[in-house]
C-alpha cells in the first residue's frame, strides 16, 4: 500500500509540474464550450469515437494470437481482461497498470502469469518497433530545421527499439551468455536494474518459445499494423474535424510522438505527457503551431475522448470479470 501511495504522489507531482509548464506557456488546457462549438464539425466526435472503438477492439483481439498457445481462453474473458487492463495502464500511476492483464487472466482462468508476462513483452517490443518505424518515415516528410525535435524523434526511438529487439533475439539464441553479460554491465549501475532487465528478457524468451509456429506471431504483427493504422486515421479525422490542416504524415507523426511521450513517467491518465506530446507534433506540421487557433480544442477533445472511452470500455470489462468465479481453472496452460 505504501508503494502505491508513493507512486501516486510522484505521478501527481509530475502531472502538476507539466500542467504548470503548459499554463506558463500560455496554452489553453481546457477550452471554453463556445470555442469547442465554433471549431468542431458535427461528425468529428462521433467519427473519432467509432474509429477509437474499432482500434480498441483490434488492440484487444490481437492479444489472442499470443494467448492461444498457453490456453483456450474464451474471447469474452480475453476481451474483458484486455479492456480492464488497458484502463489500468492509462489510469494507474507511472504505468504500473501494465501488470494488470497477466494478474487478471491468471486470477480468472488459471493461466500462468510468467507465460502471460512473456506475451506482454512481445507486444511492447513489436509496438515500439512499429511506431518508431512509422514515426521515422513520417518525419522524413519535413525538413530537419522545422523543429529541434525532428532529428531526435526520427532516430532515437527507432534505435532504442531496434537495439531492444536485437538484445531479445540474442537472448532467445544464447540466453545464459546474454543474461550473464547484461547482469554484469547493468549490475555496475544497479543490481535491481540488472535483475529487472534480465527478468524482461526471460519473460520474452518464454513467451516467444511457447509459440507453436510463426503464423500466430505474424498474425499478431498484422493486427498490430492494422491497429496503429486505424489509430493514425482516427487522429487525422479528429484533427480535420477540428479545423486543423494536418497532413496524413502529420497524423502518423502525431500518433507516434504521442505513443513515445506516454511511455515516460506520467500522472494518472497520462495527463501532461499527453498534451505536451501532441503539442510537439503539431508544432512540426502546422504553420501556426499548437498554441494558436483550434489546436487546443483538438488536443482537449483527443485527450477527453481517448481517456473517457478507455475508461468506458474498461468499466464494461471490469463488470464482466466481477461476475466470474475467481477460482475458475478450466483453462490450464499447455
For the record, the count of structural domains works out to 1
Q: Give the H and E element order.
A: HHHHHHHHHHHHHH
* Major beta-sheet overview: none
In percent terms, what proportion of residues is strand?
A: under 5%
Helix content: over 70%
Number of strands: 0
Structural class per helix/strand content? mainly alpha
**Low-pLDDT segments, ≥5 res:** 327-334
Rg (C-alpha, Å): 21 Å
Report the average pLDDT across residues.
84
Total number of helices: 14
Task: Give the CA-CA distance, first to last residue.
Answer: 34 Å
What is the general shape?
A: globular
Can you describe this structure?
This protein is mostly helical. It has one domain (44-322). 73% of the residues lie in helices and 0% in strands. The chain contains 14 helices and no strands. It has helices spanning 2-24, 33-39, 44-61, 64-67, 75-91, 100-109, 113-139, 150-173, 175-187, 191-209, 214-241, 248-261, 273-285, 295-322. Helix 3 (44-61) runs antiparallel to helix 11 (214-241) and helix 6 packs antiparallel against helix 7. The protein is globular and about 55 Å long. The two termini are 34 Å apart. 37% of the residues are buried.
Amino acid at each position: 500500500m505504501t508503494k502505491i501511495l508513493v507512486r501516486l504522489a510522484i505521478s501527481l507531482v509530475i502531472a502538476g509540474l507539466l500542467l504548470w509548464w503548459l499554463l506558463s506557456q500560455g496554452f489553453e488546457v481546457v477550452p471554453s464550450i463556445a470555442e469547442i462549438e465554433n471549431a468542431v464539425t458535427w461528425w468529428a466526435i462521433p467519427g473519432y469515437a467509432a474509429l477509437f472503438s474499432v482500434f480498441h477492439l483490434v488492440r484487444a483481439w490481437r492479444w489472442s494470437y499470443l494467448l492461444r498457445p498457453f490456453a483456450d481462453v474464451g474471447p469474452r474473458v480475453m476481451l474483458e481482461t484486455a479492456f480492464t487492463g488497458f484502463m489500468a495502464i492509462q489510469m494507474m500511476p507511472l504505468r504500473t497498470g501494465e501488470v494488470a492483464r497477466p494478474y487478471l487472466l491468471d486470477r480468472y482462468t488459471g493461466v500462468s502469469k510468467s507465460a502471460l508476462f512473456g506475451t506482454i513483452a512481445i507486444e511492447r517490443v513489436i509496438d515500439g518497433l512499429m511506431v518508431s518505424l512509422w514515426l521515422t518515415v513520417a518525419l522524413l516528410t519535413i525538413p530537419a530545421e522545422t523543429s529541434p525535435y525532428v532529428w531526435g524523434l526520427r532516430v532515437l526511438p527507432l534505435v532504442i527499439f531496434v537495439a531492444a529487439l536485437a538484445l531479445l533475439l540474442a537472448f532467445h539464441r544464447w540466453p545464459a551468455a546474454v543474461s550473464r553479460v547484461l547482469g554484469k554491465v547493468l549490475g555496475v549501475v544497479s543490481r535491481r536494474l540488472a535483475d529487472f532487465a534480465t527478468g524482461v528478457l526471460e519473460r520474452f524468451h518464454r513467451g516467444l518459445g511457447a509459440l507453436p509456429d510463426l503464423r500466430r506471431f505474424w498474425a499478431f504483427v498484422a493486427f498490430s499494423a492494422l491497429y496503429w493504422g486505424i489509430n493514425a486515421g482516427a487522429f487525422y479525422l479528429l484533427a480535420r474535424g477540428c479545423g486543423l490542416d494536418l497532413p496524413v504524415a502529420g497524423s502518423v507523426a502525431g500518433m507516434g510522438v504521442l505513443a513515445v511521450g506516454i511511455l515516460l513517467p506520467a500522472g494518472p491518465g497520462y495527463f501532461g505527457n499527453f498534451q505536451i506530446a501532441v503539442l510537439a507534433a503539431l508544432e512540426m506540421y502546422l504553420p501556426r503551431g499548437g498554441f494558436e487557433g483550434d489546436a487546443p480544442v483538438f488536443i482537449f477533445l483527443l485527450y477527453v475522448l481517448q481517456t473517457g472511452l478507455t475508461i468506458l470500455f474498461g468499466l464494461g470489462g471490469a463488470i464482466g470479470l466481477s461476475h466470474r468465479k475467481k477460482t475458475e481453472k478450466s483453462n490450464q496452460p499447455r
